[in-house]
Structure formats: structure tokens, C-alpha cells
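Q: What residues go here?
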């Protein structure tokens, strides 16, 4: 009987996926919150045949070189910008990821952020909690006035699965929808999205929701020039990746009144530094990267990541492989 492969997992995961993985491998799991740092991970995974990681774990060329037994890497994430795919490919290591399963949860969060920003919910809660709602101000005609979604224009940047899921929600609210993506998406058109130039989306939208992957061509896609094209009372929602938006330019636009507000789940640096000026702005809604944070979605992500890893270890094609040329060479 052949020896079971060794697997190192950088976190405990919701659901029963790790239990199933432990039945078919010699599994070692990092026991503490936050995950191991790069040097600790390199030592811990040195003898591993498989690595199960998260988007916060940097899997770069030095780490891969330090783990010569690695035959498969699987990330519990949709994005794989934390993994050096070229280095993994050069070592013949397939890299799995988990697309699709978090579409509805992330779209729900984007919509929640949009509603919270439109109706100034966090600001209203702070106002109520600090004792400002006194009898004299029981009902004021101009108190905390927000924005209606019905009849407003939503701009969607990135018309993949999540962008289209947000479009379905917008239709239910009677919104006009403009969209831009690097390629045409028939499903978006079927949902009533008018696909057009990015400049027009920015200029006409009352709310702009970002859903593009972070890549070289999308980094700082929404820079100072792009933000300047938006309406002065528009709201920007980002649940994609922080690097898609130039954060310094966004802060300046919000401070100066060139932009009405923002609702952000992702940031250029995570965790968001306590010195970030975003924390001081009243017209910003903030969340700590919660796009996929539901019990159901995180368990599905763990299931898919484990299945990807087992497939890679057993020489089978992964359900979702970020560097399929490795499997083709196999």
C-alpha cells in the first residue's frame, strides 16, 4: 500500500472538507488564527506534497523552491494573484482555485453596501447611538436624506458572473443599467445591461459597482482621471480587489466633494491601516473583506478547494485550474 501524501493547510476551514481531506492524506493544519508567515510556512510545508492556502498566503517562487515535494497547490479563493503561477508552472505544479461558488454571496454584499451608502445607514446608526436623536428632532424633513435606487442608473465595471448577479438585483429595483467589460457578455445584454464604453459608464452612472479581477491591465483602473469623470454625487462600490481603485485619488475625490460617497469591502493594503484617511470620512461605508463571508459559501469554497487538491495529488484534472497548461503537459 502506497504512503498517503502529505498536505499542509494554512487554516482551519468551515464545513467538513478538511475532515474528508484528512481521510485521504496525512494532513497538518496551522493551528492559530491569522495563518503562518512566509518563513514559517516555508518550514511547515517543506515536506508537503500538497498545499491548501488562502488569498492572504503569499505563495511565491522562494516558497515553491523551499518545498521540493509539492505536486499540487489549491487556494480557497477566486483570485490567484497571491500565487506565482509562472513558478508553479515551471515546477509542474497545478494550481486550483474556487470560482463560481461565491457569486451570489458577493453580489449580496455589493448590494448591501450600495443600499447602505445610498440611504446613509452607517451614518444614521452612529447619529442615533451617540444620542443625537432627541425629541426636538423626532422627525425633520431634511434629516439624513439619502438617494433612491428606483430610476437611478447603475454602472457595472466587469460583467462576469458577479457583475451579472448584481445586474439581476438592479433590475428588481427598477434601475437603468450600464456596463463595461473587456469583452462582450451575452448574458449581460439579456439582463438589460447596455454595454458601452467605460468613460460613458462613469459619466452617467449614479452608482458604480466594481467587479473586475485584479490584473496588470486593471490595476488602478479607476485612477484620478477616471474618478473625475464620475458625477459629483455618485457613489463607488468596490467588492472586487482594492488595487483596481487608486485609493489616494479616491480619498481626495471624497474629501473635495468631487465624489458623493464610496462603499468598500476591499483595499490596497489589507487589513486597512488604522492611519487610513478612509476611516475619517463620513461618506464612506467600510467592511473588512466580507464578500464570501457566509457559512454556506465558505463551506462550498472549502469543498471545491479540497477536491481540486485531491485531484492534483492523484494526477486527475482539477475542476478549476489556474494554470491548465501544466495539466496538459501531464
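A:
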Amino acid at each position: 500500500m502506497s504512503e498517503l501524501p502529505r498536505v499542509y493547510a494554512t487554516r482551519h476551514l468551515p464545513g467538513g472538507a478538511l475532515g474528508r481531506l484528512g481521510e485521504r492524506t496525512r494532513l497538518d493544519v496551522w493551528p492559530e488564527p491569522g495563518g503562518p508567515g512566509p518563513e514559517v510556512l516555508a518550514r511547515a510545508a517543506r515536506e508537503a506534497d500538497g498545499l491548501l492556502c488562502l488569498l492572504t498566503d503569499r505563495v511565491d517562487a522562494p516558497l515553491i523552491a523551499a518545498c521540493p515535494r509539492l505536486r499540487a497547490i489549491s487556494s480557497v479563493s477566486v483570485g490567484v494573484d497571491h500565487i506565482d503561477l509562472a513558478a508553479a508552472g515551471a515546477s509542474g505544479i497545478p494550481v486550483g482555485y474556487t470560482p463560481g461558488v461565491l457569486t451570489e454571496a458577493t453580489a449580496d454584499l455589493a448590494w448591501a453596501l450600495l443600499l447602505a451608502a445610498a440611504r446613509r445607514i452607517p451614518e444614521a446608526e452612529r447619529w442615533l447611538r451617540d444620542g443625537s436623536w432627541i425629541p426636538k428632532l423626532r422627525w425633520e424633513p431634511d434629516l439624513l436624506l439619502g438617494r433612491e435606487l428606483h430610476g437611478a442608473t447603475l454602472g457595472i465595471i466587469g460583467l462576469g458572473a458577479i457583475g451579472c448577479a448584481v445586474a439581476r438585483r438592479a433590475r428588481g429595483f427598477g434601475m437603468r443599467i450600464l456596463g463595461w467589460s473587456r469583452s462582450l457578455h451575452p448574458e449581460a445584454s439579456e439582463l438589460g445591461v447596455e454595454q458601452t464604453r467605460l468613460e460613458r459608464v462613469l459619466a452617467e452612472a449614479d452608482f458604480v459597482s466594481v467587479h473586475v479581477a485584479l490584473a496588470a491591465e486593471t490595476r488602478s483602473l479607476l485612477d484620478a482621471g477616471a474618478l473625475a469623470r464620475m458625477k459629483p454625487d455618485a457613489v463607488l462600490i468596490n467588492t472586487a480587489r482594492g488595487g483596481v481603485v487608486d485609493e489616494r485619488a479616491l480619498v481626495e475625490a471624497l474629501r473635495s466633494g468631487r465624489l458623493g460617497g464610496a462603499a468598500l469591502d476591499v483595499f490596497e493594503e489589507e487589513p486597512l491601516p488604522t492611519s487610513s484617511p478612509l476611516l475619517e470620512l463620513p461618506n464612506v461605508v467600510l467592511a473588512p473583506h466580507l464578500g464570501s463571508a457566509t457559512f454556506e459559501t465558505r463551506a462550498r469554497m472549502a469543498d471545491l478547494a479540497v477536491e481540486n487538491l485531491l485531484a492534483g495529488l492523484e494526477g486527475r484534472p482539477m475542476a478549476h485550474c489556474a494554470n491548465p497548461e501544466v495539466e496538459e503537459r501531464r
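A: Context that may help when evaluating the design: The mean pLDDT is 96. The chain has two domains: 6-101+295-329, 103-286.
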